[in-house]
Amino acid sequence: MRPGWYDDAMSDAYRIVPTTEDRIEGFHAVLDAVARERRYLALLEAPPLEETRTFIRKLLQTGAQHLALDEAGHVVGWCDVARWQRPGFTHVGSLGMGLAAHARGLGLGRRLAEASIGAVRERGVERIELEVFASNTAGCALYERLGFVTEGVKRRARFLDGRYDDIVLMALMS
Ligand SMILES: CC(C)(COP(=O)(O)OP(=O)(O)OC[C@H]1O[C@@H](n2cnc3c(N)ncnc32)[C@H](O)[C@@H]1OP(=O)(O)O)[C@@H](O)C(=O)NCCC(=O)NCCS
To answer: In ligand 1, which atom is closest to the CA atom of 41?
Structure first.
C-alpha cells in the first residue's frame, strides 16, 4: 500500500494512512460524528474511547486492515476490513467506512476503499462483504462502482426517527 497520495490537485490536502495508536482518538471522533448523523451507520454514537481502542488493537492483531484519511493531522475518515477468524471463513472480510461530512463527494471514499481492498486482497481475503442502508445513495453508488454485487435485502430492517430503511447485503469477490 502506498503511504499517501498527492497525484491530483483536489486531493493535495489528504493522505491515506494506517490507523496507528496515535490516530485512534481521531478515528473515534469521526466515527462518533458520522454515527450521530443517525442515517448511515447502525451505531447512533461511538462506543467509549477505551472500548474503541481495545477493539482496534484486537482488530489489527487478527490481520485486519484499518486505514484512516488524514487531513492536516486530523482523521476525517476511515475504512476497515475485519477478517473473519472462524475456520472455513478466513478468506472473508467485512468492510466498514465513513467520512466526515465535508470530505464527501470528492472521490476520497473511493480511493480509501480501493486502498483497503487492495491491501486485504494481498493478504488472501477473497470475499469482502458489507451492509449498507438502502437510503444511502452515495454508499450504494460507491460500492457498485467498486464492483460490489447485491446478494440480498433485509426489508424494513431498521425503524428510526419515524422511518423504515432496508439493509442491502453486498459482496465483492476477487
Ligand atoms: C459513502 C461514502 C463513504 C462515499 O464516499 P465519498 O467520498 O463521498 O464518495 P466518492 O466521492 O468517492 O464517490 C464514489 C462514487 O460514488 C458516486 N457518488 C458519490 N456520492 C453520490 C451521490 N450522492 N449520489 C450518486 N452517486 C454518488 C460518485 O459519482 C463516485 O462514482 P465515480 O467514481 O464513478 O464518479 C461517504 O459519502 C460517507 O462517508 N458517507 C457517510 C457515511 C457512510 O455512508 N458510510 C458507509 C456506511 S455503509
So the answer is: 47
Ligand 1 contact via 110 beta carbon (within 6 Å): yes
Give the closest residue to 81 by CA, choosing from 110, 59, 99. 59
Domains delineated in the chain: 9-125 (3.40.630.30)
CA 139 – ligand 1 centroid, Å? 5
Handedness of CA 45, 14, 56, 154 (dihedral sign): positive
105 close to ligand 1 (CB < 6 Angstrom): yes
128, 81 Cβ separation under 8 angstroms: yes
Q: How confident is the model at residue 11 (pLDDT cuts 50, 70, 90)?
A: low
pLDDT of residue 51: 97
Give the residue among 108, 170, 133, 116 at the shortest CA–CA distance from 37.
133
Report whether 151 contacts 170 (CB < 8 A): yes
Residue to substitute in 110, 117, 131, 143 for testing ligand 1 pocket (most ligand atoms within 8 angstroms of CB): 110
Could you report the per-residue pLDDT of 88-121, keeping only the tens digit for each? 999 999 999 999 999 999 999 999 999 999 999 9
Distance (angstroms) between ligand 1 centre and the Cα of 47 equals 25
Nearest ligand 1 atom, CA 106: 11
